[in-house]
Design a protein that fits this description.
Radius of gyration: 32 Å
Protein name: Maltose/maltodextrin transport system permease protein
Oligomer: single chain
Family: Belongs to the binding-protein-dependent transport system permease family. MalFG subfamily.
Membrane topology: Multi-pass membrane protein
Keywords: Cell membrane, Membrane, Sugar transport, Transmembrane, Transmembrane helix, Transport
Distance between the termini: 64 Å
Largest sheet: 6 strands, antiparallel, barrel
Order of helices and strands: HHHEEHEEEEHHHHHHHHHHHH
Main location: membrane
Length: about 475
């Protein structure tokens, strides 16, 4: 009787095939990156406690070092994963520039994060302080805007246990955050002796921010008639009107310039292409000067015809018309070029047959050109609507969302679209910043854009095409 020895199964070095293999590879790489980020974060936190003056980029060094150590170990456990390491740069950029901003936006939407509640030391109420010999008790000499240290630090508990105090040396160069054990009058007892050699000269509190649930969304919808509804309505009108006007102008010019019997058509094409070639920043600033009510050339020319100066950028209605006209100048070359490109795909024999049958030029355009252009133009029009729905540049450069309109919020004026409203809320809200409210607006914009896109795709029959 012989005993048989079972050798451990050798791990496969052949990567899984198909979509399952891609998903498994992405999952393993994402888990590897997550573990490296977690270990790097823990090590950087420990370093910050032991060495408060450590530079912030230590976190990156820890993450990269951990990643380099974990990669060979991962190959030993999952041999085929080395064939997918080329995805690392793409996943890093995806996580840094797409996933992380989305996660932060969703997180901030449910907080009170703003210029005041920023999680940073409050420099406006910094006060003189001293540290005891055992480096355990901080004595605050004055408590600005408060009666005692507990009120000054804005502690969540009456004893201030678990709170944070920020300490500075004489130069106030590097803030050191220390955990509080208790507070008695103006004396703050730390949870542990202050590490390092810092000589405390000043102290201040943290401007904490916390979760407030749906408070930001309630605030937005409670003022819907003064901000959300009018801004949303104008955003839809702006995007739809821009697409219709630009498409009509581009279609007309494209059909005219595609005529092979037109002399100098290449010169006309080049001339009409220039508005698209010139950077929009320059073009919009030029139009802003041209439409100036007092000194603009447009009103000067109208004055020669006896027409009263028009407040192009000073009246809510005329400002909206100005935005559409300037956006027409910027957008029609793209539609014209798309039309010319689409026309080149139509068989000339169709026009020759129509001419033989006695069809006029207009009948050929109506019965041949326009129906055949529909397939090419549908995705262009849908993408144009989505782009202009969030076309922040033209609004910011031409009108900055103004002019002011009575009954509106200060951040949501006559020409503001949803995106510029969110920008104003984030960076110019009552002279400060309200990032939490802006994040809530961003989430609302996301769901509105998603709903409109689904309606557009359904109307265009995109889903039916995908099922075929």
């Amino acid at each position: 009787m012989t005993a048989t020895t079972h050798l451990p199964a050798r791990r496969s070095v052949r990567p899984p095939e198909g979509a399952r293999g891609v998903l498994m590879a992405v999952g393993v790489l994402a888990l590897l990156m997550g573990c490296a980020a977690l270990i790097g974060w823990l090590l950087s936190g420990l370093t910050a406690r032991l060495l408060p003056t450590a530079p912030p980029y230590v976190l990156l060094l820890y993450v990269l070092g951990t990643l380099l150590l974990l990669m060979p170990l991962t190959v030993r456990l999952v041999p085929w994963i080395k064939n997918w390491y080329y995805l690392f740069p793409a996943l890093v950029f995806l996580a840094a520039f797409t996933v992380l901003p989305i996660v932060l936006t969703v997180n901030y939407a449910f907080t009170n994060y703003n210029a005041v509640n920023s999680g940073q030391p409050d420099s406006t109420v910094r006060t003189a302080a001293s540290l005891s010999a055992d480096r355990r008790v901080v004595t605050i000499q004055e408590t600005p805007q408060a009666g005692n240290a507990a009120e000054y630090l804005r502690c969540a508990k009456a004893t201030c246990a678990g709170g944070t105090i920020v300490l500075f040396d004489e130069e106030a160069s590097v803030p050191v955050r220390a955990r509080v054990a208790s507070v008695s009058g103006n004396r703050v007892t730390l949870a542990a002796p202050l590490a390092g050699t810092i000589q405390v000269a000043n102290a201040t509190r943290l401007n904490r921010y916390g979760y407030v649930g749906l408070a930001n969304f309630r605030d937005i919808f409670s003022k819907a008639s003064r901000a959300l509804l009018p801004v949303f309505l104008w955003t839809v009108i702006f995007a739809f009107s821009t697409v219709v006007i630009n498409a009509a102008a581009g279609l007309l010019l494209g059909i005219l310039l595609y005529n092979k019997r037109l002399k100098g058509r290449n010169f006309y094409r080049t001339l009409l292409f220039l508005p698209w070639a010139v950077p929009a920043v320059i073009s919009v600033q030029m139009w802003k000067a041209l439409l100036n009510q007092q000194f603009g050339i447009v009103n000067k020319g109208l004055g020669l015809l006896g027409i009263v100066a028009i407040p192009w950028l000073g009246d809510p209605l005329w400002a909206k018309i100005s935005v559409l006209l300037v956006n027409l100048w910027l957008g029609f070359p793209y539609m014209m070029t798309a039309t010319i490109s689409a026309l080149s795909t139509i068989n000339e024999d169709l026009y020759e047959a129509a001419s033989i049958d006695g069809a006029s030029r207009w009948q050929q355009i109506r019965s041949i050109t326009l129906p055949l252009l529909r397939t090419s133009f549908t995705p262009i029009l849908l993408s144009g609507f989505a782009f202009n729905f969030n076309n922040f540049g033209i609004i910011y450069l031409l009108t900055q969302g103004g002019p002011a309109q009575e009954g509106r919020e200060a951040t949501a004026q006559s020409t503001d679209i949803l995106l510029s409203w969110g920008f104003n809320t984030a960076f110019a809200s009552s002279g400060g910043q309200n990032f939490a409210l802006a994040s809530a607006i961003a989430l609302i914009i996301f769901f509105l854009t998603l709903a409109i896109s689904l309606v557009n795709f359904r109307a265009a029959g995109v889903f039916e095409e995908a099922r075929k």
